[in-house]
Amino acid sequence: MLAAGAVGTVGAILIKKSNKLGRGRKGGKQGNRWARPGMTVVFRAELMPGRDGSERSFRVTKLLPSGRVMLEGVAGEHTETEFERAR
Hints:
By secondary structure, the protein is of the alpha+beta class. It contains one helix and four strands; from the N terminus they run αββββ.
């Protein structure tokens, strides 16, 4: 009886770890992304000094599997840390 309880505990731990790694249920963290296509993001002022917020604003065209984004009118891939937090 003690062995059955231990097996159940180990199973629960493995399920919890697999969910943290992004495996398991569909839609886990998929819906909780920092950006979405069509959304407007604003580069941090330190990255574009001397420019107004409207000049640092760009529209997200594509969200990549790595969590980076492609922007309209800006070359390359960009990460969440390059942008101001939404208020």
